[in-house]
Specification:
By secondary structure, the chain is an alpha/beta fold. 30% of the residues lie in helices and 14% in strands. Strands 2-3-1-4-5 form a five-stranded parallel β-sheet, with helices on both faces. Its EC number is 3.6.4.13.
């Protein structure tokens, strides 16, 4: 089970729709949902009927669900405190978890602020094999014209 954090409600909805279109069991949690809808989504997540919860920071605090193994920061949070709350959703009750933050070069100063706030460095890994604008599914096609 994983929580994927986005900065905006619109982005969370768009990402959730994309995950569902690809066949993933996913739902969204953000401030535009009614309390009844939020409770329904959380019930499904707690019961592991959905694998991915795409959320804004409304879910970063007070979300206590056992079994969350991954937190993805699809967008860098607005402040270091939000980062701490987000990654705290995994590895609860002595369990292990993994937090992954997607960042671009423009996010360097935000990452440095987070590291300073935490007092530790965040391990960095690059995905240099993906050039800007190139999708993972793009492959060279021999003897055929290739369109994007």
């Amino acid at each position: 089970m994983a929580v994927i954090f986005c900065r905006t409600k619109r982005r969370a909805k768009k990402l959730n729709d994309a995950l569902i279109a690809k066949g993933f069991e996913s739902d969204e949690l953000h401030g535009d949902l009614s309390q009844a809808k939020r409770e329904k989504v959380m019930k499904r997540f707690r019961e592991a009927k959905i694998q991915y919860l795409v959320a804004t920071d409304v879910a970063a605090r007070g979300l206590d669900v056992e079994g969350i193994t991954h937190v993805f920061n699809y967008d860098i949070p607005q402040d270091p405190e939000s980062y701490i709350h987000r990654i705290g959703r995994t590895g609860r009750a002595g369990g292990k978890g993994l937090a992954i933050t997607f960042a671009a070069p423009k996010d360097r100063s935000a990452l440095q602020q987070i590291e300073k706030s935490m007092g530790q460095k965040i391990e960095r890994r690059s995905i240099d094999h993906l050039s800007p604008g190139k999708r993972v599914e793009d492959r060279p096609v021999k003897n055929k014209k290739h369109r994007r």
